[in-house]
Specification:
globular; 759 residues; Rossmann fold; 32 strands; 6-stranded parallel β-sheet; single chain; 6 domains; 7-stranded parallel β-sheet; alpha/beta; 25% strand
Length: 759
């Protein structure tokens, strides 16, 4: 430990330093005894349990100290503090950003340290490199000056490489290999002197060379009358205000995003574009990069820790405007001069973090940030959420502008409802209707493409015995194991909650019957059936299993858009912002399960999903078609779907919810209790309920529970929940219960969700 140089009576700073330990973090007190000038927002080097560790200063208080570095507390006992060793980096965030996060922390019932940890890139603090000035040498390849005679000796591949290097003025060898130029080709050309090799150090710059290729004279489409009107409305709103851009699928919302982003960039303001899924980001990044004159950066969980740290450092170090496109966590990025937030597909519940705490909703966080920091906020959707609808029409907190027409001259896709009960009566027991098979068979001859939505990934939903009814469940979770299939026909069982893997079995372990078959439909099963029925079709699968690799989303969508496949089979990701001009057929299989989920908002979510998918076809010159397979063609949602009347659904459903005092016309809090001991978990829930009932009665709130969660066990932890709801403008019962965590025993975990979207 370093000795303090301060004299006995000089004021001294006590710093709260946030340290990371994997998934966990905590704040510890240290003294700036050597007057290093550490401030809130600085990275510092400290000693923890005998080892040097990087930490983040999140608190600072002035105290007095004696000559030995001891502070006297109220009880007259001496507390020994360690000293910070070094200031590693100044100003990782500013105090205004910290104040805003502190306010969010109170709302979401977490500590300031937890909120900051949530906002920061994963691993930033614990993995901070003190030797950041060291840089490794990398190989730089450039083209040599060649005469015409030498050029004649080149093979087509070598000539392409030379042209590529001339255009780029050189590239890193690793980049060339990534673009398809193999190392043996590079080595042969080095030996012949066609190219040069040098060693350089890479600067801390983000590689955006991929996105700079088509920036020259981008094609700027002419706006329609309704697009112009929408853009005019957006330009009129003031900083700190929000607007809902309600545009039909294919109406050109992304072009509006580009136009308003250009306007803000000219004002030297940065832009943040949020998307609900990583799969949507490649298309957005490509479009924005090819159109705008600055680099566009990604920010999401598939980005490396190094990349996210570089993005963060750029935002805090440079005054020039930036464009960042990311998922919900990007809403916390520390922009210096943020002027615009665009939240695309705002209806999507992927913006909500369910676990761990803080259980924030990026839609609400964006609105709060826009108001506090005077930023324009645009919500974009073809099927707005009930929550935003309420803010627009009931609370008048958000403006609205609509685009009711597509930009193309083609008609909206025809929606065909296939009654699968009639298919069964005809003797068709397949998962694909006859009409669908006929339509798919025409794709190749018409040079068209189709997308097929399947609610579940994997091969089949579960494995069950037709003789005794036994179902194979996960040993860790209260759910069935899903059947998955490999490339060579091998099958295995997997849990989509805890990732448990089990060997596939062909007989029932309970009655030894061989009538042990997979039930339900997954993406793999659909691909298998189409390959069998229509082997001439080329098929790609688009789900979590196929997109988990780096750039997996971009590769699959790029291949599909280039016509390398006729059919794209995927999960709900397909319905979110995918724009492929040649898609003329959208299909929904096994939709009934989505409409009957035990969720108060299941009808809203189902209709949003179906309408979004329907809008993915016929977006260019060719007309589109939608095929919707169901066993319940008379369901109310089907009527709204056939009429494409989402507005009527919002009007009628909002009246029902308002009259019944249901979300979002009430304030809701969900307490989730989990633990390895079911009896102790339930008992804790009962204890919490008893503690909260008096406060609920005082605030005119209702309390339901404790009751088992919908999935009562996940990862060997039993789950119970307590639901509280009350008037929208009332003070919550938790406001007067600061000691609620004191009621939770060891090894029992409490999650407080102040804005649940699924109950």
């Amino acid at each position: 430990m370093k000795l303090a140089t301060n004299n006995q009576f000089q004021p001294l700073s006590k710093l709260g330093v946030l340290l990371e330990f994997g998934r966990y973090s905590n704040c510890f007190d240290y003294l700036d005894a050597n007057n290093l000038g550490a401030e809130i927002g600085d990275m510092v080097l400290v000693t923890f349990k005998g080892n040097l560790s990087a930490g983040l200063v999140i608190e600072k208080n002035i105290i007095s100290q004696n000559a030995e570095g001891k502070k006297i507390n109220k009880n007259k006992s001496n507390i020994k503090y360690l000293f910070i060793e070094e200031v590693l980096q100044k100003g990782v965030f500013d105090i205004h950003w910290k104040v805003w996060l502190d306010e969010l922390a109170k709302n979401y019932r977490v500590s300031s340290a937890t909120m900051i940890k949530t906002a920061f890139p994963s691993g930033w603090i614990s993995k901070y490199k003190t030797n950041s000035n060291y840089q490794k040498n990398f190989i730089w390849i450039s083209a040599s000056n060649m005469d015409d005679r030498s050029k004649d000796e080149l093979t087509p591949k070598q000539s392409l490489l030379i042209d590529y290097l001339f255009n780029k003025k050189g590239l890193w060898q690793s980049e060339l290999i990534k673009y398809g130029f193999k190392s043996d080709l590079i080595n042969r050309m080095l030996k012949k002197g066609f190219i040069n090799k040098t060693k350089r150090k890479k600067s801390d710059e983000l590689d955006t060379s991929f996105f700079k290729q088509n920036r020259v004279n981008p094609v700027i489409p002419t706006l329609t009358e309704q697009q112009n009107s929408a853009l005019s409305h957006i330009r009129k709103i003031n900083p700190g205000e929000a607007l809902l851009l309600w545009g039909e699928t294919g109406s050109g919302k992304t072009e509006i995003y580009l136009r308003i982003s250009e306007i803000e960039l000219l004002k030297n303001k940065s832009c943040l574009i949020l998307a609900p899924e990583i799969g949507l980001i490649p298309q957005l990044v490509d479009r924005f990069s090819h159109r705008l004159g600055i680099d566009v950066y990604e920010y999401h969980s598939n980005c490396s820790e190094k990349y996210k740290k570089l993005v963060w450092n750029k935002l805090i170090s440079f005054d020039k405007p930036f464009v960042v496109i990311g998922t919900r966590s990007a809403v916390f990025l520390p922009f210096k001069n943020l002027g615009l937030i665009i939240l695309d597909e705002e209806h999507d519940n992927s913006y909500k973090q369910e676990n761990p705490m803080p259980c924030y909703d990026a839609r609400d966080v964006a609105l709060d940030r826009a108001k506090k920091h005077q930023i324009k906020l645009i919500y974009g959707s073809a099927t707005p959420s009930m929550n935003v609808w309420k803010k627009v029409y009931y609370e008048k907190k958000i403006y609205i502008t609509r685009i009711r027409e597509r930009i193309s001259d083609t008609k909206t896709p025809e929606i065909n409802i296939i009654d699968m009960r009639e298919e069964f009566k005809k003797g068709n027991t397949k998962i694909l209707s006859d009409k669908l098979l006929e339509r798919l068979a025409l794709l190749r001859s018409k040079k068209e493409q189709a997308i097929i939505l399947v609610p579940r990934r994997g091969y089949s939903g579960f494995l069950s015995c037709r003789n005794c009814g036994y179902v194979v469940n996960c040993s860790n979770c209260d759910t069935t194991l899903t059947v998955h299939s490999g490339n060579k026909g091998t099958k295995w069982l997997s849990c989509h909650w805890c990732n448990l893997k089990r060997q596939f079995i062909n007989f029932c372990p309970q009655c030894n019957s061989n009538a042990f078959k997979p039930f339900g439909v997954g993406t793999q099963k659909v691909v298998e059936v189409i390959n069998y029925e229509l082997p001439q079709l080329r098929i790609l699968r688009f789900d979590r299993d196929t997109t988990s690799v780096k750039d997996g989303h971009r590769k699959i969508l790029t291949d599909f858009s280039k016509g390398k496949a006729d059919v794209l089979v995927g999960t709900q990701m397909l319905a979110k912002g995918i724009d492929i001009p040649n898609v003329t057929l959208s299909v929904v299989l096994a939709a009934d399960g989505l409409m009957h989920r035990p969720d108060l908002t299941s009808e809203e979510k189902s209709l949003q999903l179906f309408l979004q998918l329907a809008g993915r076809s016929g977006r260019a010159e060719k007309s589109g078609e939608v095929i919707f397979q169901t066993y319940q063609p008379n369901h109310p949602i089907i009527d709204y779907l056939k009429n494409r009347d989402y507005e009527s659904f919002l009007i009628e459903n909002s009246k029902i919810r308002e009259k019944s005092n249901l979300y979002p016309f009430c304030k809701v809090i969900l307490l989730k209790i989990s633990g390895l001991d079911n009896y102790l978990t339930e008992a804790t829930g009962n204890k919490l309920a008893e503690y909260l009932i008096p406060s609920c009665k005082e605030k005119n709130w209702f309390l339901i529970g404790p009751a088992p969660s919908l999935i009562s066990k996940i990862g060997k932890k039993f789950r119970w929940q307590i639901l509280m709801y009350g008037p929208v403008n009332s003070v919550t019962p938790l406001e007067n219960t600061p000691n609620i965590l004191d009621l939770i025993p060891r090894n029992i975990y409490l999650t407080i969700d102040t804005s649940p979207v699924e109950i």
